[in-house]
Inverse folding.
């Protein structure tokens, strides 16, 4: 019987990997994928707590997180495409007009 | 042979290792296409973890929607933009990388301590009601108590779709 504690620690590890990806990667697409990693980690934690309390509310929350992730993926990728059309690359270090 | 190696433990260990390794490989790659494929592997491992937690409907939705629709959208955009493989793997020097790694370990350790203190008293998981994690039990909640969030999510998806079409349009 795997304790819920193990699932939460695994969720923390995946979340930390996702945050690292957002902070240190160059390509806007890979940064977006790291955001999806973070959302997945949170889904895992929600499902684990849903199992711990034997109630379906956590899984309903996961369902909504997935729906919001889909909406965000569509809009975010459209933004990346629009920026690519201006700059010619997906490198986030090229988008520096507002840096001091 | 009875012992600690139940099927659930083996599945959890395998899927957890797969999830962590594929997540690390997502951010390690230079080529975005390989990163996307490793993310699909990670989503598959998380789907297996949903199954061990009794969420069959969530595992199915994860594979169908997340791995089957969102990641396909990602791959379409990567194919459309055709980014070349990055010459430099990270956008930061080794100092920032080390700091990020240390902060990540700190976060994991803090959460470990918090959850360990919380769950030390109740080791056994409660019995789940029959039909736990099935589409019926979620549907029953979604169409009664959570009907308003469902409708709002529908509007959100519509808004996102319109926004994506407007943003990705060429020209004006």
């Amino acid at each position: 019987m795997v304790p819920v504690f193990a699932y939460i620690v695994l969720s923390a590890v995946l979340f930390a990997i996702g945050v690292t990806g957002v902070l240190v990667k160059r390509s806007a697409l890979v940064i977006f994928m790291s955001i999806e990693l973070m959302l997945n980690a949170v889904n895992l934690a929600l499902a684990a707590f849903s199992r711990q309390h034997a109630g379906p509310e956590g899984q309903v929350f996961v369902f909504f997180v997935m729906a919001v992730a889909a909406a965000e993926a569509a809009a975010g990728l459209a933004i990346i495409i629009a920026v690519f059309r201006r700059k010619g690359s997906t490198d986030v270090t090229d988008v520096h007009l507002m840096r001091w | 042979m009875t012992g600690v190696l139940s099927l659930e433990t083996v599945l959890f260990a395998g899927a957890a290792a797969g999830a962590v390794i594929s997540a690390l490989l997502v951010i390690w790659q230079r080529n975005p296409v390989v990163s996307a494929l490793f993310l699909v592997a990670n989503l598959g491992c998380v789907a297996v973890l949903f199954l061990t937690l009794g969420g069959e409907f969530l595992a199915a939705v994860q594979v169908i929607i997340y791995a089957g629709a969102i990641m396909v959208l990602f791959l379409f955009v990567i194919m459309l933009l055709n980014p070349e493989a990055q010459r430099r793997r990270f956008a930061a020097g080794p100092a920032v990388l080390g700091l990020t790694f240390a902060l990540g370990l700190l976060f994991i350790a803090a959460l470990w301590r918090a959850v360990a203190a919380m769950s030390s008293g109740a080791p056994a998981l409660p019995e789940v009601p029959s039909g736990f994690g099935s589409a019926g039990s979620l549907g029953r909640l979604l169409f009664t108590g959570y009907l308003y969030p469902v409708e709002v999510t529908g509007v959100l998806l519509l808004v996102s779709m319109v926004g994506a079409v407007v943003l990705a349009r060429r020209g004006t």
